[in-house]
Fold each of these.
Amino acid sequence: MVVEGDALDLFVEKLRSDAPPLSRIMDLQVSPGEYQGFPDFSIKESEETGSFTLLSPDVAVCGDCLRELFDKNDRRYLYPFINCTNCGPRYSITESVPYDRSRTTMKVFDLCPACEREYRDPRDRRFHAQPNACAKCGPRVTMPGGEAQGSVKRDPIEETIGLLREGKIVAVKGLGGFHICCDAANGEAVERLRLKKRRSNKPFALMAPDVGTIRRFCYVSSDEEALLNSRERPIVLLRKKDDNPLPDAVSPKNSFVGFMLPYTPLHYQLFYHPCGDGLSCHFSCLVMTSGNISEEPIVIDNDEAVDKLSDIADAFLVHDRGIFMRVDDSVVRKREGTSESGKGLFSFIRRSRGYVPGPILLHEDGPDVLGCGAEVKNTFTLTKGRYAIPSQHIGDMENFETLRFFEETLRNLKSVYRAEPEAVAYDLHPRYLSTQWALSKGLMSGKVDSGVDSPRDLPAFGIQHHYAHIASVMAEKGIKEKVIGVAFDGTGYAGDGTLWGGEFFIADIFGFTRAGHLDYVALPGGEQAIREPWKTAVSCLKKISGKDFRDHMELAGFFARYGREKVVMVGDISEKKDFSPLSSGAGRLFDAVSALLGVCDRNTFEGEAAIALEAAVFSGIDDLYPYDVVYGEPAKLCFSRTFLSILDDIGRREEVGVMAAKFHNTLAESAISVVRSLAAVTGIGKILLSGGTFQNDYLMRRVDNGLRSLGLEVFTNELVPCNDGGISLGQAYIARERLKAGLIEKDYA
């Protein structure tokens, strides 16, 4: 930027204080230059400079555009792609940088004279708004196959509203991909969608027209309201009201439901389109679940949507604005407490639309590296200069379609940020698709791409799963010194023949020592026990019961529920090492207790039993069960007495909510006990908490408060999920810092 005039100091001051709503000034440097004699203000065509620029995430429609959308006197009245400089698509339509219209999917739409004038006028709100358009020159919505379905020729949005009112399921093309949509108040429609999408018990995301409507169904704090209304418009997990009228099928066995507000003009019209009867709201809320099948990425192409989603959707509402980068909705949950700025604390469950490709500041420069992430909830992270750039939610890396999505997103972000990784980091699990890709593609390609290009060996860093969890917090906070890390999740590869998941580390950027862990439990049948937690419960009781095993199974009701012969067989299998791997996972402990209490005995989606157990907790209970810590190298947390005491409570017919609370309290207190001892021995005062189990707000709150009461500093993830969606940031940070220190690792496994 070159500026001339008499009030340059005032200009610099205003640039900081009155910056445009979507701007984010990362750094501002002022230097003198030669007088040019510019006659007026202008923006010149972008030039390729080889440097990178930050690209804005997609942003929800602003208030000004929303008012114009429903103003009958405005030329964009009811135009579903209305936007301006302060709102609309960015990342999802950008094909390359610099960010000009010719480099977006809008390049196929020639601006009409009226839109051209707005685009060229510095005084206009649409000055250089690259997606700028109107009904005369821009994208349009249609309903493919509408006549074949017996529909009349009318406005496609009006037609969609009519179908939704009838209980139909409609696939709707949005900002970063398709949603599959139905009336959330129609229990039959929700049940049919759950059956068609094979969703089991996984909750559906909902969209409501306003916060007031959401309050009919859920409790909404002022912080949650602010987040719902933010320009990012994520899905916010909110606690259900006991008397909420939502069908149970929306969010079975769960005390939370995910709500978001409309974030595109098209979404608003689904609620408020006139349809000949004014602007009365058509729906209290709509199911807005991702438009995909079988864990594949969200669909973005019209023809692909019709091909893949026809078995689910009764109709399609599509448009012809191209989506270059698919971006699923972000999901967040409020945490107890406030940040340093005084705002409420939130945890990411999924970091995607609205936040990506926003960078995370790493405090100092470093080399370009790539962290490939894990398998479940995969993301990758690139680093460039002072920044880490996590990708949007990629999904579970279990099929070719997801791998292709991984590669296309990597190519795009590498191009946008001019990143050429000098090293690649990956999870140690040899069967993870992300690991196999890192070793076969990344390691052998100097450009870390999906194709081989002047092959050379890149330094490759295998980073243990739970160490990467802790490192993700280190990256966020700029920590390099030794910390005590507590990583609680379900499963992570260790390399010693066991599955880790309840870990206490002494760690820094150069490595870690396993200072403690939860006691091992055998998983009968391996992954089968993860899907059927009651089998893990049987294994736990078999280990501690001895000759009382059958009595304990009878008391727990397992013989009645699953059959005596089957239960005994599972118990016998749990003692056979070849068929029952050992796990120290905190998630498996939750599985076992959830099944033992009769809360949830099958995981139809990841973490279901643990989520249901948290939902069962009665508040206001501080009692806990006995447990044992066996100190050594490493220390071991044992819960044999915990399980025996739970059985005693079951025999006394204690309420499930009381037992669930006591178990949570026990795990929290036992973790605090181990950390207290480690801090006393090592003198380390920084405690880092990460891993998917810490998505459990009740557990996180008790551990956090307990550690702080000891005078310890506690840190956890705020900028990326603490689940496996944050793994790639930790991988990239460790690889980057080791490269800076001159430590080079190569792995040709």
Amino acid sequence: MDFQKPRGRGTLRRKKPPAGKALARLRYFAIQRGVPFRPHKPRRAPLAMAPATRSRLPYLTAFAAKKRSVRRSAQPRRKWRELGPRLIPKGQTYGTGGNDQPAVSGRIVSVAIDPSNARRILAASAGGGLWASRDGGGSWRPLTDEQPTLAMGALAFAPSDPRIVYAGTGEGDSLALLGVGLLRSTDRGASWTLLPYDPFLGQGFYHLVVDRADARHLWAATTVGLYESKDSGASWKRLRRPLTWDLSFDPASGELLAGCQDGLFRSTNGGSSWTSVRLPGRPAGEFQRIEVCHAPLNGKVAYVFAANDKVGRLWRRSSVGSGFARQTLPRDLDVSQAWYDWCAAVVPDDPDTILIGAVELYRGTLDATGQWEWTNLSSRETGDSIHPDQHHIAFAPGHPHTVYAANDGGLFRSPDLGGRWKSLNRGLGISEFEFLAQHPANDAWLLGGTQDNGTLRRSARGTTWHQVALGDGGDCCVNEKNPKICVHSYYSMGVELSTNAGRSWTDIGPRPGSAHVALFYPPLEMHGELIVQAGSSLFVTENRGRHWAECQIPGTSKELRVATTLATPSATEILVGTHLGNVYRLVRGPGGWGDAKLTSLATPRRGAYVSDIHVDRRRVWITYSTLGGGHVFVSSDGGASWDDVSGDLPSIPVNAVAVDPADSDIVYVGADNGVYRSTRGGGRWIEYGDGLPNAIVGDLVLHARHRRLRVGTRNRGAWEIDL
């Protein structure tokens, strides 16, 4: 979602990244972990380590190590408490009138409604696991917080036996948060069993289809092809090798349609053999995305919704032998992120009405003259609007006009095919925090940047957070001496400042030139009136943006060194880490930051992404998020030399570090699977506390006055624990 000018909440403008924000954010995630970034060649998923075996996949190894760590702990374990948000009352949409700020949560990629009870709903969060509601979406509870991964991609009930549910781990849509196999439930989702991992280790699911006549028979569309299982997912046969996005099965004819990277394919024998289906006017080359769907009322009618060469296309057939014909689409259809947000579904009681989702959600109806009438269902000038970036469309069994829309803002339901919408996001704790900041005295007050759901503020106890700035929430900080002064960012360079604790914001810059390079979320830091934001240069201000001093980070035209993290141990000193593992110190000059001196510190033998820097009374700590190698280093001589104190930490990304001000040998790190503590200044690490979901910890802050540790997770919100 790209808000160029937040309405009444500041004046900061953003240039949309080439190929869309979702792609830029995925690249940011890949850079952090040092994995290949090949979004247009996704046959090998980015986090699939070669060879992708159970023993060598780092995240599975880390999960096993985490369980051993729990058993090693000799002391009683404290409990983590969820801080939310379980409710974000007013979210963001592209609508301009009526109900255009519905409650939101986080990214939902799939939803399934129990065929025997429409009030029982299961939802798959991209990185926050599976969730269940027994009251039609009025309340929710998490189901899979202790599974090896919380990344989900697909979800399906068995029509012939609704006690059986399947969930594919690994989000195909993002190609980043990938999985470890298939989950199966035999009690309507109350409990889950992880099935054998191969061949889905490190891969992602797009879609699952269960045979209507046989609950043991299912097909899976994944990042590594099209698969079939005849024994409830215990074993699999690969039917096609190319990446497969979608499947549709017509039980009346037994026809399977598959939307694959190399086109549309058809099988009439359960997938034993396949034939290519001609799509008139199809351009040459691979598709960017394909969705396929039979009309439930009449399976002879089928649709193909596809994107290629930045153009959206819709084909329809009226009978099996008639072939597919090109149809018209909405003029304002945005296909820039078709690889990420793309879905379609035919209305159950009307083969001539289809819903399609991209950035926006549309309903199209074919009239008697062969003309299409399209209605935008997600962004309206009057009436209800919902969050953009659509991932899945589902209909309630037995209620053909009750539709569910899953998107980056969560889950919404309409009783009349999109005429009216109700948010079902109350209770869904699936916000994706990238950064956290806190009030030094008021422990209830927190500020956090979230993916596509803005910068959020918690100003009172409880799990309700309010959105105080739109778009993608980036890094944020609070002035320790005057906490009413705080700063936050969006994606790319630029800072907004508030003097009233986040109730209103003012754009204060900086505005680098076109040659400047920065991360999708540039690091931002604050110390009193000192504010610094950095990319290939550091921009520093002491007067709230009236003047910015720039200091170039050493590099070459072929190899820029880009800042990944900052620390401000004093008002005259800045430490910066880069994506290549460099660490620098910038010291204010006698005449100000314009003549500041930049020196290079020693580099721990890692050309890797520096994810965090922390300076305590005696030492400097740095962490790395690149897969492999050491992840926690400490220097006792100001950065002249470093010791690797990773010790027995699992070899997965470490994203944040905090040191207990009461005892500098007690250190906490936030990793891709939780929080670890050392009481010896590193080396020996134990998973800290009970009850924290097995989620990626993106940021970590320690509240010294109230002795609490807070974490912001990717897709499971914020949590805290008493120290």
Amino acid sequence: MVVPDRMCYKTQMKDSPVYVLGTGLSHDSSVCLLADGEIVLAIEKERLTRRKHDGGNDQIAMEYVLDRAGITLDDVAVVVQNENFGMFRHGNSNYRGQPRLLTDARPVVTISHHLAHAYSAFGPSGFDQAAVLVVDGCGNAYEDCIDIAPGSLVSSIPCGLEHLYYEKDSYYTSENGRLLTVAKDFSPWGAQGWSLSPPTTMHSIGGVYQAMSHYVFGDFSDSGKLMGLAPYGEHGRFDFPLFQLRDGRVLVCRENFSKFTSPARSRTALKSNFLYYADVARYVQSEIERALLYLVRDRFERSPSRNLAYAGGVALNAVANSRLIHEAGFERLFIQPAAGDNGLAIGCAYYGWLQVLKKERVRSSGTTYLGASYPSDRVRQAIAEAGNRISVEQSPDVAARAAQLLADGKVLAWYRGGAEFGPRALGHRSILADPGLRGMKDHINANIKFREDFRPFAPSVIASEANRYFDCAGHDSPYMILVFSVRQEYRDRLANVVHEDGSSRLHTVTSESEPMYFRLLQEFKKLTDVPVLLNTSLNKRGMPIVETPEEALSFFLDCALDAMVLEDFVITKSRPDLGSRERVRGLVELPSASDVPLIGMRVASMALTYRLSHEAWDEMAGSTKELVIGFNDTTGMQKLQLPHPLQTVMRIFELCDGSNTYSHIASQVELNVNALLQTARSLCQRGILDHAAANGNPPRLPGPGLPSARSARPRP
């Protein structure tokens, strides 16, 4: 690891901080700023552009960090960057045709991919001495790696093909605050024409998970869903390996991928053959764990250590992570909270501090709250712009007021301070609820997150009490990246955060890690005797976690959230037309004449369209009107067919405003009430209608969205 001698870095005055700027330009790109060796700001590009997994050019993220720190690039001692392809051989002033803040006149250090991942894990780990592991889909090409050490290659690279072999796993040890390379393995790029060919290297663990994610969900970026689906599956359907494990290497058994011939083309296809895809997910998860444990044990034998710091996209697999704690040989494990490519900027910044500037390592606080806080006047302005759609209370004790709302069964948005960095909401941008209230999991998935009903939710728990409820053996899990079993006696009380296999992806909270969120858990315990809350990120399917107060309020108003804590304000929705009624949590199973329907939270739009014959194109003669509906959780529009004239259907929807019962609506449209209820039942099942509870009577709720026993459905 050599820094070119020709580069000269700015030396700042002793009374001003020494700034280092790190930037990652992969997918999930980000920028991080260190001041005197500590992270002071970091932002993921997707939070600013509002495009999930946004990557590439770093200008907008760099401007955010510099502006909020109140500095310019001239105040930065060194900039360190990473990108997977090209290593900026043609200059730093633009990337993929777009201008950057950097100029070619400015000295910039470019480092390779796994080295950036490694420093992102080691830098904030808190370990004085540690081994560092990186496992992902694809790093830099062999010819671009600056961390090749003598004897570190696990396999040979064919001469002349160095540009075609890419990093797939790397292992380092620390010495005096710097990293030394112990072992690196490379793989050729994925073969074209291979069934389920991953969009990455041929023999990477991460590539297999991406490929199978695409097979089940139709998206390479849905690997986390695969882990969530796996507990619904069973072992035994597949009797062939996905990986060959030998000589310290993990190799993909390419020939066995041709046996997967039924990719899910849609969510409907996934549901109709659910048990098959659940078995696929279970099998893939098991094979990933087998391969990863083999790899980690081999690396431990090459260079043992008490401590392991771990990063790369595969490190987001919380189920496998929990096995590493018990089975890999290390005593302590630190997993970078932003283990994927969003963490590269952190690694670049630490490399600049430790390796380029040769500074002493500063112990990290471990916080993930690295976004900037928004000023109170901007919060007040956002509230003012919401107008009479909301009711606002400035509470003298926000934690106590929020706990009461949660204990009353409300679903609460919790927005305070700077945003978390990484994929998990840890008490600054969260959706919270009672973990045991019946129907809550299905309600949040369907009407707030707009996502698949098998997706689990995580619990936040006071750290000192975690072992009472979870079989975590005293292990802390501050980043929601480890999975533990829920103790049998508490599974009913915590039903909404217990996954199909009895596990939970745990988030432990201390007064030091987040004082106000800790107080909220304490206050909730006073009211319910349970120091646990359902915690999920403040966003919906396909949306980055909200960043600004305006985004938070917009999301709050557009979904079925009941209340919101926005800094020191407690906000509820103004619904004068509903009186004391509340929207149902879940779908009414058998609507009755006295129920009060509303247009469903799942519905994004309704429109009348005209279907024309070819002959009638010019004069609109012979055209047929159709009603089409757009949904929040699917793309495209769906045609609605009901056994009533279109004019009657439109009038029914006009009357579904939260103030009319089915009996009244039937009289207004001159329909038999039983015929209307039959139609309503179909609309309820599709999420087109929600309901309000009339006269204080709670609406009837259906059971869980998926059967807990496999015998409930025939196997395909």
